[in-house]
């Protein structure tokens, strides 16, 4: 999952490039680097305790929550100067550079704050970061409706001679900036532009409120639950807290109780969702679109909601018969294990599909975990990137105050010829108040600065892995290992998106393309030739037997149609919520109807799964992106890597033709080049 927007990131982060000096722009090896595997299987290396303290991510101002206000004020001052400069500069490539600097100035703290507001353990930091996000977000919307600023860009786009002289990336970025003006309502009169800004700010607030509500637990009087299942849940006095669906629990009654209680509708959350959907529709219609989906899908590969629905309906039709067979197998297994209550229900799907995989292929996760220590998995990624791309990962010691939690690791990403490419902060471990989601955050985007130096990208990868114990390092299930590879795919996209402009760096590209590099990494994580390089028993050093890897890979085909059908259901629901308004039925009635048509398992009365659908915030009208990206990633794998997952020539081509462009090139053009240039598989 991605977080971050097409905005800029911190020139002001001033992440100290200690010890880099090399000629020709190449940054040399640092003495503070250490092997990546050992850093994750050992106890955390402490930050430097001597010397002057820095702030979060090396930003001096962010040594305290109050620093967000100072960093914000600096960004807004720089913004004002750049707006004046943009409005007085004649048409030319310099205009695009100024706009990119303007975007960078605004996001110096904005994307960083997007992460801090949900992940920092200190409430004061989270609160300060959220206020900063709101203030800078408001400024972005005001600038997107600034007539004078827009006019300077229009003059450039209207000058054919100048536009013809620009390189393709600069033209693309200029057009993307104009697109941002257009979808924000730059063509409206002053009163309507102000309404558009107010609506955008309101939507931002509603999104934050919905996200908080989506993760809040529900509680129930403990006397209502049978005594023999209460121990599965957290008890607070006379109440039991339900914090999730307990989807992997072997007790059918526990899963049923968790499902019905956790998804019980909350009136305030329901009001928030309805207001969010209505506000999005009002904004879309105000700026000239039929629906929010039409507005959101401009600039994506799919282009229109009609094409998205066509894609989803076609996929659903192809899955239908296989999904029915999957449900029959699950129901048969439930009948075998629980003959008194064998009807298949929504809370059964994740559990019984797992039981079927385990029974048919003997893939009990506990058999695999000892081979997937976190350190071994990181070494596996390191080996893969080195073979494919000439890249190595090194753990780097941090400065006092640079981290928000002591178990965070910082990785330097280093190319064998180009030197340091950027930094990845790995926030991998569970902790109180940390969201249980796997996510990639852009903290700073790469760009070419005026002084000729390249601003290095910085990202955070957030997972929810267990801590090491006295007897073992952190051990991953096969699913956790695959998720790690997925998120590292996003990180490499950020590291290798070597664009001139941060507005299109790395993952700042159309949403339905942004998931391609991450999903492609799942194919590597399922290939024995890759897994064999790193899967070693943490005690004996024994390699994971090929038969176990083969069984694991084959098991993923079990109930795969039903799993994908569930994603189709979510994607269709997302489209309907962001389609024509006013909605013809309540969001819960639409959920019921869509679930029965596009999923197949019955709706459970007095539940409202949509109130936990947090992707409606970041992926509004774009949830289909996972499915479309999977189709493209499958093609890239088959064309480029299925013959040899370590093929350096293919790795370099993949970087050159896809990763390097970020959002600076039309995705379909990149896909077509990969498809056209890749060597055909043997036998074709």
Automatic annotation (TrEMBL):
Q: Where is the Peptidase M3A/M3B catalytic domain?
A: 246-672
Q: Which GO terms describe its cellular component?
A: mitochondrial matrix
Q: Name one GO molecular function term.
A: metal ion binding
Q: Which GO BP terms sit in this record?
A: peptide metabolic process; protein processing involved in protein targeting to mitochondrion
The top EC class is hydrolase
Q: How is the cofactor bound?
A: Binds 1 zinc ion.
Q: Tell me the subunit arrangement.
A: Monomer.
What's the protein called, per UniProt? Mitochondrial intermediate peptidase
Which organism was this protein described from? Chrysemys picta bellii
Per the UniProt record, the lineage of the source organism begins with: Eukaryota, Metazoa, Chordata, Craniata, Vertebrata
């Amino acid at each position: 999952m991605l977080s971050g927007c097409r905005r800029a990131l911190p020139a002001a982060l001033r992440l100290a490039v200690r010890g880099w000096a090399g000629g020709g722009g190449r940054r040399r090896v640092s003495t503070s680097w250490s092997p990546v595997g050992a850093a994750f299987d050992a106890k955390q290396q402490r930050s430097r305790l001597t010397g002057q303290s820095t702030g979060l991510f090396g930003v001096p101002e962010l040594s305290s929550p109050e620093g967000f206000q100072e960093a914000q004020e600096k960004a807004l001052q720089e913004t004002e100067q750049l707006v004046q400069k943009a409005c007085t500069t004649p048409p030319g490539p310099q205009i695009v550079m100024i706009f990119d600097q303007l975007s960078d100035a605004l996001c110096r703290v904005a994307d960083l704050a997007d992460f801090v507001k949900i992940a920092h353990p200190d409430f004061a930091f989270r609160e300060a970061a959220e206020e900063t996000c709101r203030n800078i977000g408001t400024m972005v919307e005001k600038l997107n409706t600034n007539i004078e600023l827009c006019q300077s860009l229009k003059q450039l786009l209207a000058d054919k001679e100048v536009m013809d002289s620009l390189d393709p990336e600069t033209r693309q970025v200029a057009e993307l900036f104009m697109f941002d003006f257009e979808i924000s309502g730059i063509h409206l009169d002053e009163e309507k532009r102000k309404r558009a800004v107010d609506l955008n700010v309101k939507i931002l607030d509603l999104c934050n409120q919905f996200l908080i509500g989506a993760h809040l637990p529900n509680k129930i009087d403990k006397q209502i639950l049978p005594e023999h299942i209460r121990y599965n849940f957290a008890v607070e006095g006379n109440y039991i807290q339900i914090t999730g669906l307990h989807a992997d629990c072997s007790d059918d009654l526990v899963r049923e109780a968790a499902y019905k209680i956790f998804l019980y509708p909350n009136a305030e959350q329901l009001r928030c969702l309805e207001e969010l959907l209505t506000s999005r529709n009002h904004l879309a219609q105000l700026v000239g679109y039929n629906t929010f989906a039409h507005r959101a899908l401009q600039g994506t590969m799919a282009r229109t909601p009609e094409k998205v629905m066509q894609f989803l309906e076609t996929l659903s039709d192809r899955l239908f018969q296989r999904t029915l067979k999957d449900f029959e197998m699950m129901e048969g297994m439930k009948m075998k294990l629980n003959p008194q209550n064998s009807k298949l229900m929504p809370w059964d799907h994740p559990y019984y599909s797992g039981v079927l995989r385990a029974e048919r292929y003997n893939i009990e996760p506990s058999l695999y975990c000892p081979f997937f220590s976190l350190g071994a998995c990181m070494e596996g990624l390191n080996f893969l990137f080195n073979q494919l791309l000439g890249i190595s990962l090194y753990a780097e010691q941090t400065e006092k105050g640079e981290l928000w939690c002591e178990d965070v690791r910082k990785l330097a990403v280093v190319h064998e010829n180009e030197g340091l490419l950027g930094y990845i902060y790995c926030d991998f471990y569970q902790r109180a108040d940390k969201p249980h989601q796997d996510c990639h955050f852009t903290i700073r985007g790469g760009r070419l600065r005026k002084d000729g130096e390249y601003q290095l990208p910085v990202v955070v990868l957030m997972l929810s892995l267990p801590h090491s114990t006295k007897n073992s390092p952190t051990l991953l299930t096969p699913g956790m290992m695959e998720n790690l590879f997925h998120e590292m795919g996003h990180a490499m996209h950020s590291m290798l998106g070597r664009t001139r402009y941060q507005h299109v760096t790395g993952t700042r590209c159309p949403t339905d393309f942004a998931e391609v590099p991450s999903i492609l990494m799942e194919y590597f994580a399922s290939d024995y030739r890759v897994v064999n390089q790193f899967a070693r028993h943490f005690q004996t050093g024994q390699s994971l037997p090929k038969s176990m890897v083969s069984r694991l890979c084959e098991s993923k085909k079990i109930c795969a149609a039903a799993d994908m059908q569930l994603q189709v259901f979510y994607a269709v629901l997302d489209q309907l919520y962001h389609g024509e308004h006013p909605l013809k039925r309540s969001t819960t009635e639409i959920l019921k109807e869509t679930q029965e048509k596009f999923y197949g398992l019955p709706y459970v009365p007095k539940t409202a799964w949509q109130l936990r659908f947090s992707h409606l915030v970041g992926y509004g009208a774009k949830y289909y992106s996972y499915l479309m990206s999977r189709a493209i990633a499958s093609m890239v794998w088959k064309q480029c890597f299925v013959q040899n997952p370590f093929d350096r020539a293919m790795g370099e081509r993949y970087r050159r033709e896809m990763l390097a462009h970020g959002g600076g090139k039309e995705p379909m053009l990149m896909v077509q080049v990969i498809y056209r240039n890749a060597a055909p598989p043997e036998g074709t």
